[in-house]
């Protein structure tokens, strides 16, 4: 996350976009945290003698705290850590001592939010703790009628919360408090400069468009046992379910990058874990492997959240509401994350889950009451209408036929939204960059390769490595995949990239079938045929699927 996205085409093609989240499940709890900080700074610890007061809290990202906070340390940094963990549902004594209970809480938090489970509070864990805690105003989509045409310094409210959330997503370190102050203004100007916009600090139409444009898809924590993840997670998959798998494997002693890609290293780690757990080492993460992964995930004897239960089963109440704790809530939180929230999956329906439910209900046009009844359950499970036609198969020879048959499919339609099922997404294509998702869908429909990824860079990386029947070719043919790096550099990263299929080739020019591209005749974006070239000022890489 946090990669910068730039305008990538000269012909009006859509740049990759960040999926809009109706509202992160975490809010900045500024009031309660400030009050707690004041009490601690004054040496007041509830229920304790003044002599045992914890050290005054110190912000984890300050120069006064070490790069990694680990077991055995005693300081105000640990006090701050314990406060933040408690805000996320832990029940720690805030004493400034990093002991076994704090270690356990750190590991549980890391596993719930798909961070490598090592018990060490480094940059990623610190950032996540601050980005997902509290009670700033609920975010409001910047393009909605509730937000002004130009958002400027001095504004306060949910529109500013959303702006700050997006700026953090693009890598700017600012507080999410719903207050457009000088820090937010500085970040806005820096963002505008980086994206070739007028750096006036005003968030108008062009700045809003760029804020929502990046080549990233959701990778929040999902409970592997919930309906938001496939029954069997296998090599070639990518996304939030794989990120959680990798985090859980790290909690069992593996050493994986939590990148959301189920590649050879993750496969080897799965097999190693299966062998050590007395399971069949087939590399497929099915029910038995999932159960074993969730046993004792915190290193303190716990099993994390209650196992998820389908919301429509007789085991779940007709209405799931704030205050309940159960596997029904685990399932609810995973489904909300699948739709773009950013909740820790702990099975506890608290204030953060309540906010995420209300955000989801508002986005789907449901009654916003925070009660998860039949209509909300149906929306959680049924946001996308998949295609009714069965996958045609046919392998490589059918790639172009399947892709070409989709030409004219309009962004935001049920058909276009269904492409996300190939990579485990249940989002409208209006709200994220889906060019690589379209390529993944065609690959799944034809069976030409088992690889799936929502990132262009992932396809390029695997082709260069010769994995998944993918390879780089300098002699393009119809049916090949083609990746574009619009700003050069040949790295196909940073939000400057695009991907599609080769349709015809004539010398140094070629035509393509692309998703997430502009309609050459005007109108909404979608799947269309485009004219491209090898010498047009951008880098091109051709990928053979054989």
Features:
single chain, 546 residues, alpha+beta, six-stranded antiparallel β-sheet
What does this structure look like?
The N terminus is likely disordered. By secondary structure, this protein is α+β, with helices and mostly antiparallel strands. The chain is globular. Strands 1-6-2-3-4-5 form a six-stranded antiparallel β-sheet. The longest helix has 13 residues.
Brief characterization of the structure:
Helix content is 32%, strand content 8%. With 546 residues, the chain is an alpha+beta fold.
- How many strands? 6
Taking all Cα atoms into account, the compactness measure Rg is: 24 Å
Relative helix content:
25-40%
In spatial order, strands of the major sheet run 1-6-2-3-4-5
Shape: globular
Q: Based on helices, strands and strand pairing, what is the structural class?
A: alpha+beta
How many strands, which pairing sense, and closed or not: the largest β-sheet? 6 strands, antiparallel
In angstroms, what separates the terminal alpha carbons? 32 Å
What's the helix count?
Answer: 17
The SSE order reads: HHHHHHHHHHHHHHHHHEEEEEE
> What fraction strand?
5-15%
Please tell me the overall pLDDT.
Answer: 80
